[in-house]
Write a structure and sequence with these properties.
Helicase, Ruva Protein, domain 3; about 45% helix; about 475 residues; Sigma-54-dependent Fis family transcriptional regulator; alpha/beta; Rossmann fold; single chain; ATP-binding; 18 helices; five-stranded parallel β-sheet
Length: about 475
């Protein structure tokens, strides 16, 4: 238990200055105010501290060697995007201060500074950090409250999906969920059920691709005793088991036209007939169906009944593939690792370089592939901190630089056996470039919405656009 006389830590601050006396004096002042303070003499040393994720505020000198304060700020925000920073300068240079704030610093202070001024600016910066943390916590609580905690991600695509899901959940409308394998279609269906008025009733899933055609009808509709060889007793089908709740029919396009016809009749009449019986039974079931195929193409090719398609597609929910929301990879990886840690006597943690490594991959197997990669790394890694080499990525899933609409083509590279291919930095830069360009195409001059979609501050967006030599629309507004 904390002693009543012991000051409660008010925030975690990293003081960086290559002048030992200045660094020690500043740290001593802040510790006297109840802050937890770390010190670093160089930018590289500071980055090592920041990578551990235990800093709320960076207080750094601008003029240092060999890494100056502006470079430290840039690299520090890449390691910890939520980091607050105050720059210290002995020159009172407005240009340097403006540049630092444009790059993402919260404030600056001119040396020699008054103790009261430093206290005030530090307190304001830490209050902003608390506010950002509160917003993040609110988003987490919102997802948990609405049964969406399993739908990890704050990308624009995921926000649109969850918003649409919450709107349709309260109705009894039939929902068709479309997405590639491994995107989490069943999680979406479960979230739909959890937030519906049927949440206290059964959620019953069935995968049509996992059951043979001869057994699927019996599985869904049930059968009477003696209806076929092996039917030694009457059995309720999944429609009856889901009565009052939700029936999730996964891979519905894997069914035959004959079965589709029987399913259509059940959806139209709200009744089921067990195999071998003539009496119809009323059922009150909400249907959520899913497919990983282009169902409209299946209809055009006459492999799926058009009338059943329209019956199922009252509301469409599209689950985006992971390659379209790579900004969600860090949160997803951390989510899967924390879940793995609950089952392991040896907790692991993700390194910043491992996250960057994962961000260079387009995940052909989607979220399921990322989950498997994290679990494999947690099980086999030698060290507690997971490194890039703990995540072997398939070559066919590597993200390669490519020309994007509205951008100059990437430099031509040799394709012969002596070519080393793009570097990791080039791959990450091209992924950022594509994401920003696509967001600009969607939102045009509204840079605030662009930044919101990408999950970064407006300052960070401007900084990245300048580094990538991307020009905003002439009438852009924040």
């Amino acid at each position: 238990m904390t002693d009543a006389t012991t000051p409660i830590p008010r925030g975690r601050i990293l003081v960086v200055d290559d002048q030992r006396n200045m660094r020690a004096t500043t740290a001593l002042l802040l510790r006297g105010e109840g802050y937890t303070v770390s010190e670093a003499a160089t930018g590289e040393e500071a980055l090592g501290v920041l990578s551990q994720g235990q800093v709320d505020l960076l207080l750094t000198d601008l003029k240092m060697e060999p890494m100056d304060g502006l470079t430290l700020l840039k690299r520090g925000l890449e390691v910890a995007p939520r980091l607050q920073a105050i720059m210290m300068t002995a020159f009172g240079s407005i240009e340097s201060a403006v540049e630092a704030m444009r790059l993402g610093a919260y404030d600056y202070v001119t040396k020699p500074f008054k103790e009261g001024e430093l206290r005030y600016r530090v307190e304001r910066a830490l209050e902003r950090a608390k506010l950002q943390k509160a917003v993040d916590n609110f988003a987490t609580e919102f997802n948990q409250r609405h049964g969406l905690s399993a739908l990890v991600g704050r990308s624009q695509a995921m926000r649109e999906l969850t918003t649409r899901l919450l709107r349709v959940a309260q109705s009894d409308a039939t929902v068709l969920i479309q997405g590639e394998s491994g995107t989490g279609k069943e999680l979406v269906a479960r979230a739909l059920h959890t937030h519906s008025r049927r949440s206290g009733q059964p959620f019953v899933p069935v995968n049509c691709a996992a059951i043979s055609e001869t057994l699927l009808e019996s599985e869904l509709f049930g059968h009477a005793k003696g209806a076929f060889t092996g039917a030694v007793k009457t059995r309720r089908g999944l429609f009856e088991e889901a009565d009052g709740g939700t029936l999730f029919i996964d891979e519905v396009t894997e069914t035959s036209p004959t079965f589709q016809s029987k399913l259509l009749r059940t959806l139209q009449d709200g009744e089921v007939r067990r195999v071998g019986e003539s009496t119809a039974l009323r059922v009150d079931v909400r249907i959520a169906a899913a497919t990983n195929r282009d169902i409209e193409l299946e209809v055009r090719e006459k492999r799926f009944r058009q009338d059943l398609y329209y019956r199922l597609n009252v509301v469409m929910l599209r689950v985006p593939p992971l390659r379209e929301r790579l900004e969600d990879v860090p949160a997803l990886a951390e989510h899967f690792l924390q879940r793995s840690n609950l089952r392991s006597p040896r907790p692991r943690r993700l390194s910043a370089t491992a996250v960057e490594h994962l961000m260079t991959y387009n995940f052909p197997g989607n979220v399921r592939e990322l989950e498997n990669l994290v679990e494999q790394a947690a099980a086999l890694a030698e060290a507690d901190e997971l490194l890039p080499e703990d995540f072997p990525l398939r070559p066919q899933g590597r993200v390669l630089p490519a020309a994007s609409p509205g951008l100059p083509p990437t430099d031509a590279r040799a394709t012969g056996p002596e070519s080393s291919g793009p570097t990791l930095a080039e791959v990450v830069e091209e992924a950022e470039r594509r994401a920003i360009v696509q967001a600009l195409e969607r939102h045009g001059v509204d840079l605030a919405r662009v930044a919101d979609e990408l999950g970064v501050s407006s300052t960070t967006l401007w900084r990245k656009m300048k580094r990538l030599n991307l020009r905003p629309p002439a009438d852009a507004r924040e």
